[in-house]
Amino acid sequence: MTIQKISVFCGAHMGKSPDYKNAAEELGELLASKNLEVIFGGGNVGLMKVVSDSAIKHGGRVTGITLKSLDDFELTNPIITETIITHSLFERKDKFLEISDAFIVMPGGVGSMDELLEVMVSNQLGGINKPVGILNINGYYDSFMQWLQHSVDEEFVSTENQKQVLISDDPKELLEMILTTQMPSKDTWIDRLNVEFPSD
Q: Are 135 and 51 in contact (CB under 8 A)?
């Protein structure tokens, strides 16, 4: 599958360190330079605004998928290429999964974590078969990766599914990983779960 649209999940806040903003600017520029459309949460605040503004500034196409309630409060970035209005979080996440070819998760709050896990679960259960990467600026997701390894060690997550999560602290490196990764066949999702089903 050719990757043309990449969702970027990130915070509605800037975060404590300026490194988060710098990484968001770099990522937006990188995606635009490779003619990759940015799909994001639509916000005109925080890192969401930074990455979308950067992509637009460098000639990229940006689509925001937002909630009607947020759009009503004029929290949607007005300069983006297209805005898709959804009426629930479930509809919003379904739209991300439907139109995106790959996903990058930057530092953010519970919303970004929810979106990351939604993609991971959808990959595990065969709903999608798309690359997902974590941009681990300043070790922000170190504790999550430790938990993921612990879940593998305790045999609740398979090594095969753990390996589907790409991670780097460098935007350029992570994007290259996403664009070059070889996804397993979608038909093998049940084997990758490594679950022992009861015999007849």
A: no
One-letter amino acid of 64: G
Residue 144 has what pLDDT?
98
Is residue 9 classed as helix, strand or coil in its secondary structure? Answer: strand
Instruction: Map out the domains of the chain as residue ranges.
Output: 5-182
The CATH T-level fold of domain 5-182 is Rossmann fold (3.40.50)
Cα 32 from Cα 57, distance rounded (Å)? 9
Q: Are 20 and 114 in contact (CB under 8 A)?
A: no
Q: Which two tokens stand for residue 18?
A: 């300026």
Q: pLDDT tens, 140-189?
A: 999 999 999 999 999 999 999 999 999 999 999 999 999 999 999 999 99
Cα separation, 166 vs 104, whole angstroms:
9
CB 40 within 8 A of CB 66: no
Confirm if 9 and 46 have CB atoms less than 8 A apart.
Answer: no
- Is this model's pTM higher than 0.85 or not? yes
- For residue range 121-130, list pLDDT tens digits in order: 999 999 999 9
Q: How far is CA 75 from CA 42, 66, 109, in A?
A: 8, 9, 17
